[in-house]
Amino acid sequence: MSDASRTPHIDELLDQACQAINEGDRARAKVIAERVLQVDQGNAEAEDLLAAPADHGEIRRLTIMFVDLVDSTALSTRIDPELYRTIVGSYRDDVLRIVRRYEGHIANTKGDGLLAFFGHPQAHEDDVRRAAQAGLDITRAVAELSARVRRGFGFNIGVRVGIHRGIVYLDTAQDDVYGLAANLAARICSIAEPGTVAVSDAVEPLISSGFELEARLPQSVKGVESPVHHFRVIAERDPRPRPLGPLVGRERERAYLERSWADALENRLGTPGVVFQGDAGIGKSRLAWSAVDLAERSHAVVLALIGSPLHTDVGLRPVRRLLERRCGITRTSDPRQRLEDLARELETLSLDPTGVIPLLAPVLGIPPQTGYRPVEAEGRKLFELICGAVHDYLRACVRGAPALVLVEDMHWFDEDTVQAVRSLLNSDLGGHVLIVMTSRRLVPLGDAARAEVFDLAPLSDTESDRLITALHPSVTSIAKQAVLRRCDGIPLYIEELVTKLKDAPSDAGALSSVPDTLYEALFARLRSGAGAVRVVEAAGIIGTRVERALLSAAVDMPGAELDQVLQQLVDSRVLEPIEQDSWRFRHELLREVAAEISPPSLRREMHSRIADSLLSAAADGNPDWPLIAYHCANAERHVEAATAHGQASANAWQRGALEEARSYLTEALAQVERCARGSDRDQMEIALRLRRALLAQAAEGVASPNATADFQRCLQLCSDDLQDDDLFSTVMSLYPYYTMRADLDRAERLVRSIRASLTGSRRKFLPINEFALGMLAWYRGDFGYARSQLDLAAATLTEEATRELDAMLFMPNDPTAGLLTHRALSRYVDADLPGAEAELAAAERRCAELPFPQGAFSLAYARQIEVMIRIESGQHDRAAGIATELAALGEQHGFDSWALVGTAQHASVAAFRALSGPTVDPAALPAHIATITAYVDAWRALGVISLITFYDALLARLLIAAGDLDAANRRLQTALDLAADTGMRFYDAELIRWRAHATDDPAQQRADLTAAVDLAQSQGASLFELRSALDLFELSPETGRPALVQAAGALPADGAWPELVRARTMLG
C-alpha cells in the first residue's frame, strides 16, 4: 500500500490540525477535526480543536502534570495555620525545584495543587519521560518531608501525582492551559494512590521502555463519561545487563584478539592494547573475558583491574583489589598479616620490600605503626611516588612471561587508576603483554598507536537470529520474531529475554507476557525461587562483590538454606562465583535492580546489618572505611558514617591523596549535618573541620581561604569560654592565617584573648603567647619590644608545653622552630649576622628532631627567612643556594606553596645580583622587573602579604636602576599605603630611604633620608638606621656625619655587617 492510500492514524490527524491552527489556517484545521470525528465519534480532543478561540494562544500537544497534597483540607483544620503554611511551603518548594530541574514549567496553583506542563516553553524530544521522572522525584521528596514532619510533629503528609498527554489550548498571555487534557491530568491525580504517580493510557506506551508500570483497574471520574484507564509508575529503569551467551557477530574482534594473543606468546606483539567500548549490554565484557580464556588456556599470567560503581571516587581502588587478590589478603586479615603477605608478594616478584612497602602499604590501608617506615613526602609528591610504585609492581607482575591484563569497566575507574593503566600501556612491555580494556565511554589513553579501539555496534537481524538460535535451538519462529522485534540487536537484551522463555517452557503465557522492558525480565530472573528475593536484595545492597559473611549478616536465614539459595542463584545465572565464599552479579544491572527491590525501611535495616558486620571486623581485620561509611549513611547512622569517612580521610592522607582526604571529610561533615543538634554533634563537626582546615593549609598554604572558612565555622560552634579546648585550638590555628594576610589587629586580638585564658595548667603556654606578641611587634616595626618578647619566650618555653600544644594545634608549623626563626629576624634588624646565623642553625637542628611533616614544613619556613637575611647581608651566592634548597624541599615533600616561594626567591636573588655589581646592565633589567612584578602581584591577589613590602622595595630599586622614577615612586607609595592600612611597618624606613633615590630633587632626598634615619632610630632598627645615615652622608657629608657617627657607634665594635664596614671606612 502506498503512502497516499494509507489511512492516517488519529493522532497524526490531530497533530496536523494543531499545526494548521498554529499556522492560522483554521479552515483546514476544522476539516481535519471533522474527519477525526467521522472516524472516532465524540473524540474530545477534536471537539476542543473546533471550539478553540482564535487569539492569544496555541493549540499544543503537551504533557500535563497535576500534583496535589493528600487530604490537605482536613490537615489544615487539625494543625496550627502557621505550621500548615510552613509545611505546604516546603512541599511547594520541593515541587518547583524538581519540575525546573527537568525543565518543565509551573503554570499555576489551584488550592494546594500545582499544575505543570512539559513541552512549553522549552520542548524536548523526551518531555513525557521527563515528566514521569519528575513525578517519581516529587513523591520521594515529599516522603522525606513527611518523615521530617512525623519526627517533629507526629503526623504524616502525602502527595499524589497525575500525568496525561494530549491536546490543550495554551493561553500564552495568561500562562495557562484549557481543555480536556488539563482536566484529565487532575482527574488522573485524584485516583492515584497516596505517595504514587499515575499516568494515563496515552502516556503509558511512551514511557514503558524507561519505567516500570503497574496497570490499575479503570475508575470513573468526574466529568469523564467512561472509566479512566491508568497505570502506576513504579520506578525508572536503566537497562544495562551483562552478557551471558555465546559470541555471535563479533568475529572481527575475536579474530583480532586471537592474533594479538598469538603474537604475545611469540614475544612480538606490537600494539599491546585493545579497547572495547560501547553501551551497556553491547558485548564488551563477553569479548574481554574470551581473551582471559585464551590466556588461561595458555597458562599465562592474568591480572584483573575491575571498576566498581560504589568506589568511583576512591583512589586506586582497582589496584587495591588486585593487590589483595594476588597477596591472598582477605577482609579479615589483620594489618600485620597483610604486611607479611605484601612483603612475600614483593619478594616473589624480585622487588625490594624495603623501598616498595612504604608506597604500596598505604594503598592497602596498612598503617606505618604495623611495621614500616613511612616515606617522607606528602601531597602530590607522595602520590607521584605511590603511582610509580604501582607502575613498577604491574610491570613486575607481567615481566618475563606472556601475560594478559584485563581492565574491566574503566568508566568506573578513578582518575588515578586510569593514569596507572595509561602508564602501563605506554611503557615498554617487551611484546608479550596484551592489555584488554572495556569502557562505556572513551577514556584518553595517550599514544593512540598503543591500542586498537573497537566501537561495538548492535547485532544485525541475521546475527541476532543466530544468537537466539544458539541460546534456544527449539525456540518457535513466533517467539524468535518477538525477541528480534523488541531487542534492537543488543546481545544482552536478547540473552535475558530468551533465558526467560527457556525458564518457563510450559507457561502458555510466557511469550505473550514478555515484559515491555528488560527491567522486568531482570526482575523475574531475580525471583528465580523460594528465598531468592531476600538474598538478592541483600546482595544487591552489599555491592559488586558479595561475601558470604556479609550476606549472612544481612539476611536472617539458616546457613544451609542460604547455601541452597546461593547455589540456586548461580544455577539461574544471577550470581557467579569469584572465589571461595565470594560471588558477584553477572551484570551490574542485575545488582541495581536487586538493590531496588526492598522497601526503604528494609533497605536501611540491611545496610545497618552490613555495617555492623564490617565494623566488627574492623578492629582486627582490614576495614574498608569508604564502604563502611556508605552502608552507615544508607542506614541513617550518621555519626558512624561521619566517623568512617574520617577514617577514610586519614588513610587517604597516609598515601598522599590530599584532595581525596579532604573529600572524605566533606562527606563526613555532610553526615554530621544530618545528626541531631547538640554539643556532641558540634564537637564532632569542630574536629572534622579542624582536620579539613589542616589539609587545606597543607595543600594551599597557611593563607588558604578554605581553611579560614572552616576555622570561622568552628568559632561559631564553640562556646565563649577559651578554657574550651575546641575554641582554644580554633583560635590558635587562625593566628597564622591572619599574620600571613597582615591582618595584625585581628591577630593581636586573638593573642590577647588567649592570653587571658592562660591560667592554671595552661600557664605553661605563656611563652608561646609571648612569642606571638613579639612576632606581631616585629611586623609592626616595634623591634625593641619584639626583641624582648622573643628572648623572654626562648628563655621560658619548655618541651612539655611544646608537646601539649602540638596536640592541640591544627597548623603545620612547630612553635619552637618558629620562635628561633623569628629571633633570627630580630638579630638581622640589629645588624647582628652571627646572632642571626646562630638562631637559624638552632632552628634547623630543631626541625631535624621533628617528625614529618612538621619538621620539613617548619624547615621550609626557616629557609624562606634565611634567604631574606642572606640577601640583606649581601651574601647573594648563599641566598641563591638556599632558595634552590627551598624549592627542592617543596618538590620533595609535595609542599607546592614552598616550591613556588623558593622559585620566587631565587628570581629575587638574581634581581639583587643584577643591582649589586660594579655596573648595572640596563638591558637585563626589564626581564627582572617583569618577573618580580608577576610574583608580587600574584601574592597580593592571594592576600599573602606579610613580607611583601620587602619585595616592593626590590621592585622599586629595579625601576630606579632602569630610570623609571615615576613607576618606582608609585610602587613605593603602594607599599607605604599598605603599611599604613595594615600597621605592617617593619620595612617603612627602607621604603622611605629608597624613595629618596627615586627623585632628582636634593631637598626631597635630604628630607626623606632624614625621615628614614629618625624612623629607624625610633623603631630600634639599627641596620636600617645605618643604611639611611650612610646615604645621607653620601648626599651631604656635613649634614649626614653626625647621624652616621651615631648609627655606627650604636653597633658592636667587632660587627662585620657590610654596611658597618663601609661606614667605618667612610668616617676614617
TrEMBL record:
<feature type="domain" description="Guanylate cyclase">
    <location>
        <begin position="63"/>
        <end position="189"/>
    </location>
</feature>
<dbReference type="GO" id="GO:0009190">
    <property type="term" value="P:cyclic nucleotide biosynthetic process"/>
</dbReference>
<protein>
    <submittedName>
        <fullName>Guanylate cyclase</fullName>
    </submittedName>
</protein>
<dbReference type="Pfam" id="PF00211">
    <property type="entry name" value="Guanylate_cyc"/>
</dbReference>
<dbReference type="InterPro" id="IPR001054">
    <property type="entry name" value="A/G_cyclase"/>
</dbReference>
<dbReference type="GO" id="GO:0004016">
    <property type="term" value="F:adenylate cyclase activity"/>
</dbReference>
<dbReference type="GO" id="GO:0035556">
    <property type="term" value="P:intracellular signal transduction"/>
</dbReference>
<dbReference type="GO" id="GO:0005524">
    <property type="term" value="F:ATP binding"/>
</dbReference>
<dbReference type="InterPro" id="IPR029787">
    <property type="entry name" value="Nucleotide_cyclase"/>
</dbReference>
<keyword id="KW-0547">Nucleotide-binding</keyword>
<dbReference type="InterPro" id="IPR027417">
    <property type="entry name" value="P-loop_NTPase"/>
</dbReference>
<dbReference type="Pfam" id="PF13191">
    <property type="entry name" value="AAA_16"/>
</dbReference>
<keyword id="KW-0067">ATP-binding</keyword>
<dbReference type="GO" id="GO:0005737">
    <property type="term" value="C:cytoplasm"/>
</dbReference>
<dbReference type="InterPro" id="IPR041664">
    <property type="entry name" value="AAA_16"/>
</dbReference>
